[in-house]
Specification:
The chain is about 45% helix and about 20% strand. The chain is α/β, with parallel strands linked by helices and about 300 residues long. It folds into two domains: about 200 residues, Spore Coat Polysaccharide Biosynthesis Protein SpsA, Chain A (Alpha-Beta Complex); about 80 residues, no CATH class. Strands 1, 2, 3, 4, 5, 6, 7, 8, 9 and 10 form a ten-stranded mixed sheet that branches. Helix 7 packs parallel to helix 8 and helix 8 packs antiparallel against helix 9. The chain starts with 5 loop residues before the first strand and ends in an 8-residue tail after the last helix.
Length: about 300
């Protein structure tokens, strides 16, 4: 097709300097991709600075912090077939977006391509890389990389059609592990997700984050996701695994209390997944349990 195949989608809040670094790189890509920035009600002048420094980017100013749902707002505006998600502290290497789009072009059943993340400044692989590279999920012969059951939202290209089909990210989950429910819903609809070695994304982890708040949201959201989609025995087992691995402190207690408070809507919206999707999730339990990237810290 002529013209760009993907649109860069970035959500941000109160990380002006990091966002400017990412925009410098993403607007200079040889693929010349359009860029949409969703500002989640920043108070540090982020929106004003982006409007002045990068007038070529489409800036969406949210009146409140929408969290991950800001990506939904951006995708509503996307006119290309694919969206290249990145965070304000991640950026795609030159050529990576082209390679991801090529994979999506060639494979109509592929919903997402997640890249290999290199951590700045040393450029070592992100600790989650072995888990993705060695995924045990059975894949069809045509899939161009290891099959995944979720994505990394700061380092994935998504097929807009598939993303819209499942409703994007859940407004209930807001932020923190929000990709898990999205991935399960994509798989339940028959879409495939994969990891690609040569799609390289850089991550310079921001220090401007409340790690305890993120942990509370992460624990709450993984519990909600299990209760919403998994068969009851597996949901109970996953709950036990999460609670056993979480630090025994006030933040974890708050997460569990918040999860329990959401039980009424969870039960109303519960929709158990097909057996083949559940089999994939069970196969991932052991590598996730031993992964150094899946520790509740902070």
């Amino acid at each position: 097709m002529s013209g760009p195949r993907a649109t860069v989608v970035i959500i941000t809040r109160d990380r002006r300097d990091e966002l400017l670094r990412t925009l410098e790189r993403m607007t200079a890509l040889p693929e010349r991709l359009p860029v949409i920035v969703v500002d989640n009600a920043s108070s540090d002048g982020t929106a004003e600075t982006v409007a002045d420094a990068y007038p070529q980017a489409r800036l969406i100013r949210c009146a409140s912090n929408l969290g991950a749902v800001g990506r939904n707002v951006a995708v509503d505006e996307v006119s290309t077939p694919y969206a290249a998600f990145c965070d304000d502290d991640t950026w795609w290497e030159p050529g990576a977006a082209r390679r991801a789009a090529d994979l999506l072009d060639r494979h109509a059943g592929l919903a997402t391509v997640t890249g290999r993340i290199l951590v700045e400044p040393g450029l070592g692989e992100d600790p989650i890389t072995p888990e993705l590279r060695n995924s045990p999920v059975p894949a069809p012969d045509w899939l161009p990389g290891p099959a995944l059951m979720s994505i990394l939202a700061g380092a994935s290209m998504v097929r807009v059609e598939a993303f819209r089909e499942v409703g994007g990210f859940s407004s209930r989950l807001w932020l923190g592990g929000e990709e898990e429910l999205l991935g399960i819903d994509l798989a339940s609809r028959g879409w495939w997700m994969c990891w690609a070695e040569d799609v390289v994304v850089h991550h310079a982890a921001s220090t401007a984050r409340d790690s305890r708040a993120r942990r509370r949201l992460g624990i709450r959201n993984t519990l909600w996701t299990a209760w919403l989609r998994r068969p009851l025995p597996m949901a109970a087992r996953h709950t036990f695994t999460v609670l056993r691995s979480a630090p025994r402190d006030r933040a974890s207690l708050s997460a569990v209390a918040s999860a329990l408070a959401g039980l009424p809507w969870v039960l109303r919206e519960r929709r158990p997944i097909p057996e083949h999707v559940e089999r994939g999730l069970r196969l991932l339990e052991e590598p996730q349990r031993t992964s150094p990237a899946r520790r509740y810290v902070g």
